[in-house]
Q: What sequence folds into this?
């Protein structure tokens, strides 16, 4: 049996998407919370050794480290069969993971950060909100035609694209304006083992 250690942070949707995949995929692992408020040079040595760019998440499998949340999700899907979609959907899965990293995985986290942690110039915040709303329109249109991003059902693409949406209100976004997204999140939350990131990523839930 492989030994897996996941390094993450309670406020990181990128960490959450990986831990949720491990939980829903019933992959045994140890979770270690990393306090990102700690200066980089003072963070735990084991984390700094595992994380190439000193960022979360980092997943260590039998001593081999991997980083970048969507790359980890792709590895879990293709190598471990975790929420991998149906045969023939692999390319579509990759496309949604790539879309997320450049679209909703960029716009919403940065808008949340600007409105909750580090205020930005008004024009920057306005651009982020405009981009976020456009990204939500894309998701809503896709989910108007099927229950999940892949026709075959829940996949790591859904976990990736939804990761920061659980905190949408922190960014000043009311998801009721996108009813298909709201229904999609309800379906994800109904999956056995699902937990909100505030619970699943709590430091005391580290093991």
A:
């Amino acid at each position: 049996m492989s030994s897996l250690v996941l390094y993450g942070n309670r406020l990181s949707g990128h960490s959450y998407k990986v831990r949720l995949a491990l939980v829903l995929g019933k992959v045994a692992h140890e979770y270690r919370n990393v306090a990102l408020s700690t200066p980089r040079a003072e963070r735990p040595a084991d984390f700094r050794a595992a994380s190439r760019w000193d960022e979360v998440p980092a997943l260590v499998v039998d001593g081999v480290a991997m980083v970048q949340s969507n790359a980890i999700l792709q590895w879990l899907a293709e190598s471990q069969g975790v929420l991998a979609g149906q045969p023939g959907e692999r390319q579509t899965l990759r496309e949604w993971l790539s879309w997320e990293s450049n679209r909703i995985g960029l716009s919403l986290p940065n808008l949340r950060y600007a409105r909750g942690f580090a205020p930005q110039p008004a024009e920057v915040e306005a651009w982020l909100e405009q981009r976020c709303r456009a990204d939500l329109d894309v998701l809503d249109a896709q989910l108007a035609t099927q229950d999940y991003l892949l026709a075959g059902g829940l996949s790591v693409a859904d976990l990736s694209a939804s990761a920061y949406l659980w905190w949408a209100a922190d960014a000043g976004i009311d998801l009721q304006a996108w009813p298909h997204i709201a229904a999609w999140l309800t379906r994800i939350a109904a999956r056995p083992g699902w937990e909100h990131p505030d619970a699943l990523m709590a430091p005391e839930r580290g093991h």
Notes: The chain has a mean pLDDT of 96. The chain is about 50% helix and 10% strand. The CA atoms of residues 112 and 118 lie 9 Å apart.
